[in-house]
Amino acid sequence: MIKFLDLHKINIQYEDELKDVANRVIDSGWYLMGKQLKTFEQNYAAFCNVEFALGVANGLDALRLIFKGYIELGIMKKGDEVIVPANTYIASVLAVTDNGLVPVFVEPNLDTYNLNSDKIEYAITHKTKAILTVHLYGQNSVDYKMLEICSKFNLKLVEDSAQSHGARWDNKISGGIGDAAGHSFYPGKNLGALGDAGAVTTNDKALARTISALRNYGSEKKYENIYKGLNSRLDEIQAAFLNVKLKYIQLDIDKRRKVAEYYLNNIKNENIILPTVINEDAHVWHLFVIRTENRNGLQQYLKDNNIQTLIHYPIPIHHQQAYEEYKSLNLPITEKIHKQLLSLPIGMHLKNEDIINIVKVINKFDF
Ligand SMILES: *Cc1c(COP(=O)(O)O)cnc(C)c1O
Fold first, then answer.
1. CA distance linking residue 349 with residue 7, whole number of Å
2. Which helix (H) or strand (E) holds 25?
3. Do the Cβ atoms of 129 and 80 come closer than 8 Å?
4. Surface-to-core class of residue 34, CB atoms within 10 Å of its CB (0-12 exposed, 13-18 middle, 19+ buried)
5. Is any ligand 1 atom within 6 A of the Cβ of residue 52?
6. C-alpha span between 139 and 33 (Å, rounded)
7. Average pLDDT over residues 349-360
8. 141 CB under 6 A from ligand 1?
9. CB of 184 shorter than 6 A to ligand 1
10. Per the count of CB atoms within 10 A, which of 129, 217, 324, 339 is most buried?
């Protein structure tokens, strides 16, 4: 079986280093808010070319804390609206609604699956305070039009960088393109911890300071609480693992780009729509997503040929039970693509022969 993802194979590449740092954290007797976190925050801020990186418990919390921070700073208030792509992972939207903000769903581009900035302006009202743009599948989602809209309507641009570590656009790096960004280091992400972890990046000093307190019970000084905060800290052991894995992220990106290039050049089946790349630096290929009318048939056929695929994502957010208040929204592009998307294996765990085999099998599929 060619696996979609193989976390053991990925992490075992760094076995000695990971075990070494784990031992050091165990021996240190210090497990939260220590040296490992500080080092990771410095390393990750440098990697994203931003002033501040704050480690938090996971990617959802990173996004939640950004909006909570803006609320504490008086920049947003409950009932304000946030533009979100209709086809994102549910975490993006949970971060908005958890803060009492209202998501306004905008359809994606049919070629990149990222927010269509030509459709944003129609969705703006006097309550709109932010655009939450998601670099879906690892491809930068910001364009000049989006930046213009943000400055024209005085909106914060929040990046969901959970899938796009290291993607570049306009001399900036994912996480440093907008006003603030949420990152996930869920084990399956391109930069993955060995458990849950996340980070906020920003150049906004006031926001960074607020979130730094919010993640730790709203406290800057022990037992003195400025805000009604959360407990959303990044463990020392996960920070230590991330310090190791961050050193090798470029190898992971290079491998993903090679696999993607091979797929793009060699998958030749008229019933399959391949992903569109705006520019190579702007895509880090967290996922390689194709689209086809007979998606379920193709997925079964690949499974029968020992190739595991996944669907990102099978049910749009406005059709989820959790968001039934949005079930009557009319989002035809989002609804259509959720029935057609299929993610092929991509990443460090694949051997050349796996990739060649995947392409051969796909090219033989008779729709
Ligand atoms: C993974 C992911 C998140 C959430 O990250 P967690 O670390 O799992 O909480 C948010 N947004 C997107 C687009 C993601 O892919």
1. 8
2. helix 15-28
3. yes
4. middle
5. no
6. 32
7. 98
8. no
9. yes
10. 129
Spell out where the chain has E strands. Answer: 52-56, 81-85, 102-106, 128-134, 156-160, 168-169, 172-173, 180-184, 198-202, 219-221, 224-225, 288-291, 341-344
Please give the distance, rounded to the nearest whole angstrom, from the Cα atom of residue 305 to the centre of ligand 1.
30
Q: Report which protein residue has its CA nearest ligand 1's atom 7.
A: 59
Task: Give the position, in ligand 1's atom list, of the atom nearest the Cα of 62.
Answer: 9
Record the tokens describing residue 336, joined without a space: 């259509």
Residue 302 scores a pLDDT above 90: yes
Mutate to test the pocket of ligand 1, among 186, 313, 317 (most ligand atoms within 8 A of CB): 186
Using an 8 Å Cβ cutoff, are 327 and 319 in contact?
yes
The pLDDT value recorded for residue 354 is 98
| Residue partners of 207: CB distance under 8 A and separation at least 6 | 66, 69, 70, 73, 179, 180
- Burial class from Cβ neighbours inside 10 Å (0-12, 13-18, 19+) for residue 280 reads exposed
Residue with the smallest CA separation from ligand 1 atom 6 is 59
Residues forming a β-bridge with 219? 225
- Among candidates 166, 189, 186, which has minimal Cα distance to 177? 166
- 160 pocket-lining for ligand 1 (C-beta < 6 Å): yes
Nearest to 198 by CA among 138, 250, 242: 242
Looking at residue 223, what DSSP letter applies? T
Decide if 307 contacts 360 (C-beta within 8 A): no
Atom 10 of ligand 1, nearest CA residue: 91
- Confidence band (pLDDT; 50, 70, 90) for 287? very high
Position 274 scores a pLDDT of 98
- Of 56, 60, 135, 158, the one to substitute when testing ligand 1's pocket (max ligand atoms within 8 A of C-beta) is 60
- Whole-number pLDDT of residue 367: 86
